[in-house]
Write a structure and sequence with these properties.
Elements (H helix, E strand, L loop, with lengths): L1 H34 L9 H10 L1 H26 L2 H7 L4 H39 L14 E5 L2 E8 L5 E10 L2 E13 L4 E12 L4 E12 L4 H7 L8 H13 L5 H11 L1 H17 L7 H29 L3 H23 L1
Antiparallel strand pairs: 1-2, 2-3, 3-4, 4-5, 5-6
Helix pairs in contact: 1-2, 1-3, 1-5, 2-5, 3-5, 3-9, 3-10, 5-9, 7-8, 8-11, 9-11, 10-11
Subcellular location: Cell membrane
Organism: Marinomonas phaeophyticola
Protein name: LPS export ABC transporter permease LptG
């Protein structure tokens, strides 16, 4: 059985690597073509390439379920075309045992993907997001899109970006008095000090007086707030760029503050259940290879895998967004399409076994 596991596992493993490489290559080229229009003096071509490279680890983990599906179709499909699966079945090897051999390499790949999801992809993506968000700030152009809004001590705070050291970029503090705006403070960067104090750099403060507008500038100033650096860093990140531990930490913080954390829960469960999604798609692939696709060409199998993968991804996105819109648990929104794949795959496997 070890030889069987090795033979089937290696075939699927190499097919997975080829599919993942092709998907990443296509994604890289298409994204480059789409983003190249943003290249200018403050965002050169080298910065764009750096951003795309930093996002590759996250893209790889995103593609693991679909690559597992297509890789299984290609790997087992090649064996079926060479009559190897026929010989294996004739030797009395049950279908579930072949499936076990096919799932083993996917489990190893999924475990490796979880390591990337937790330790490599988040930091790389956060660096990419920081480079992108700071490209306009290099020209001293402040924007109110792409960052995060926070309310603290009756003030409204906008943060364009933040790094893992706690430095904030593109900070804007809006101070209201009832329904009237009384002051806007802008700072290029802010670094944390002790005792809930932050040091603002290159600040510009605009005060709206009764009969005039007063503007002052300073190289540095002190800002007092109860907000912690780690919370501001997590708040400034996109939910999909956080690791599982960071997402869980920020969910707990939002829950303690009585704020909505469903978007972070959705991203958390999407990443945490990714290995389960890969296994579900492998079962669908197994049922297809031994069922309707057993006599198909390689091109037909790839096309079928792409179509099944697109339906699955769209279903995952649909149920996830429904959970946010309707208000049911994001866990249900993520696990429902996965369980549907499991059920369909198992029913088809039972018919062909």
């Amino acid at each position: 059985m070890k030889k069987l596991d090795r033979h089937i596992g290696l075939g699927i493993f190499w097919a997975f690597l080829i599919v993942a490489f092709v998907l990443l290559g296509i994604d890289f080229v298409l994204t480059f073509i789409d983003q190249v229009k943003k290249v200018n003096t403050s965002f050169p071509i080298s910065s764009l390439l750096e951003v795309l490279i930093f996002r590759l680890p996250g893209k790889f983990t995103d593609y693991i379920p679909i690559a597992s599906l297509i890789g299984t179709l290609i790997g087992l499909g090649s064996m079926a075309a060479n009559s190897e699966l026929t010989v294996i079945r004739a030797a009395g090897i049950p279908l579930w045992r072949i499936g076990y051999s096919a799932i083993k390499p996917i489990l190893l790949i999924s475990a490796f993907g979880m390591v990337i999801t937790e330790y490599i992809a988040p930091e790389a993506r956060q660096k990419a997001d920081l480079i992108e968000k700071l490209r306009n700030q290099q020209d001293n152009q402040f924007s109110l899109t792409g960052g995060v809004w926070i309310r603290s001590e009756e003030k409204f705070i906008y943060i364009n970006a933040a790094d893992k050291d706690g430095t904030l970029y593109g900070l804007q503090i809006f101070t209201p008095d009832g329904q009237k705006l009384t002051q806007i403070s802008k700072a290029n960067t802010a670094t944390p000090l002790s005792n809930n104090q932050w040091e603002l750099h290159s600040t510009r403060t605009t005060r709206f007086l009764e009969t005039s507008i007063e503007t002052t500038q300073a190289q540095t100033s002190v800002w007092e707030t109860s907000l912690k650096p780690e919370h501001l860093f997590l708040a400034a990140q996109e939910p999909e760029s956080l690791s599982l531990s960071q997402s869980n930490q920020y969910q707990s913080y939002l829950e303690r503050q009585g704020l909505d954390n469903t978007q972070y829960k959705l991203e958390f469960w999407s990443k945490a259940l990714s290995p389960l999604a890969s296994i579900a798609l492998v079962i669908v692939a197994l049922s297809s290879v031994f069922g309707p696709l057993r006599s198909s060409t390689m091109g037909g199998r790839i096309f079928s895998g792409v179509m099944i993968g697109l339906v699955f991804q769209n279903g995952l996105s649909l149920f996830g967004k429904m959970s946010l819109a309707i208000g049911f648990s994001p866990l249900i929104g993520v696990i429902t399409p996965i369980m549907i794949c499991f059920i369909i795959g198992l029913i088809l496997m039972r018919r062909v076994s």
